[in-house]
């Protein structure tokens, strides 16, 4: 594994900002830290050739996430952006051994960028603990920008829980032509939180674009399973639905 800390990240960023020919950039598994991520995001604002960028499996924090959200508002060439398996959610930052600061999730800023971005077709922010506010921001962006180019969204493992799950389901009722959504492992819950599954069922009755939906390992429960089964009788577009490990057994 390489290590692109803040200093090396800035060096790489200068090269990316100046380059006019690269179309594909894969920096996965490089131990890039938050400072390095900020530098790279600033460089990507200026780059006009890259169409695919992967910064997955690094150590990008909320500061890098905010910078990448700002980049998404300006960049008009990137079509595929992979930010999965980083640390973009809320965290504590230690400026020295005595001082610690709380950094809020960068999820809302990344998702709000989709209000104006018209080129990204595939975005993966899975496994970042972005939280419910990120799903709410996504829903708002889909309402504001129904012409969004986004078709594939990885949103797994983001601790959305019940509130975030409802926002995500509501987003599917927009006019955005999303075809693939991975919302697995978000702890939507059952029991009093069974409304999440019901919300997804209602969305599937109205949505005519989604082809693949992954809701596995969310503990949706039996009531949600029944609602989703009924929704499938009306939905005409879905070809793949993953509901594994949701506790759909007898009450």
TrEMBL record:
<dbReference type="Pfam" id="PF13516">
    <property type="entry name" value="LRR_6"/>
</dbReference>
<dbReference type="InterPro" id="IPR052201">
    <property type="entry name" value="LRR-containing_regulator"/>
</dbReference>
<protein>
    <submittedName>
        <fullName>Uncharacterized protein</fullName>
    </submittedName>
</protein>
<keyword id="KW-0677">Repeat</keyword>
<dbReference type="InterPro" id="IPR032675">
    <property type="entry name" value="LRR_dom_sf"/>
</dbReference>
<dbReference type="InterPro" id="IPR001611">
    <property type="entry name" value="Leu-rich_rpt"/>
</dbReference>
């Amino acid at each position: 594994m390489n290590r692109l800390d803040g200093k090396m990240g800035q060096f790489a960023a200068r090269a990316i900002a100046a380059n006019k020919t690269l179309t594909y950039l894969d920096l996965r598994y490089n131990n890039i830290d938050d400072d390095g991520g900020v530098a790279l995001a600033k460089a990507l604002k200026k780059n006009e050739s890259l169409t695919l960028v992967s910064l997955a499996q690094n150590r990008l924090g909320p500061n890098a996430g905010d910078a990448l959200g700002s980049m998404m508002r300006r960049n008009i060439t990137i079509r595929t952006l992979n930010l999965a398996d980083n640390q973009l959610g809320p965290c504590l930052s230690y400026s020295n051994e005595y001082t610690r600061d709380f950094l809020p999730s960068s999820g809302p800023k990344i998702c709000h960028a989709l209000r104006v971005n018209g080129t990204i077709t595939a975005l993966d922010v899975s496994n970042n603990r972005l939280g419910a506010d990120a799903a709410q921001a996504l829903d708002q962006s889909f309402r504001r920008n129904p012409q969004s180019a986004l078709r594939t969204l990885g949103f797994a493992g983001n601790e959305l829980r019940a509130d975030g799950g409802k926002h995500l389901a509501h987003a599917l009722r927009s006019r955005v032509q999303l075809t693939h959504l991975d919302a697995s492992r978000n702890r939507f819950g059952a029991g009093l939180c069974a409304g999440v599954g019901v919300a997804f069922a209602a969305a599937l009755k109205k949505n005519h674009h989604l082809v693949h939906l992954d809701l596995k390992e969310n503990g949706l429960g039996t009531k949600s399973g029944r609602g989703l089964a009924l929704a499938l009788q009306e939905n005409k577009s879905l070809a793949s639905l993953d509901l594994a490990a949701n506790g759909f057994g007898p009450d």
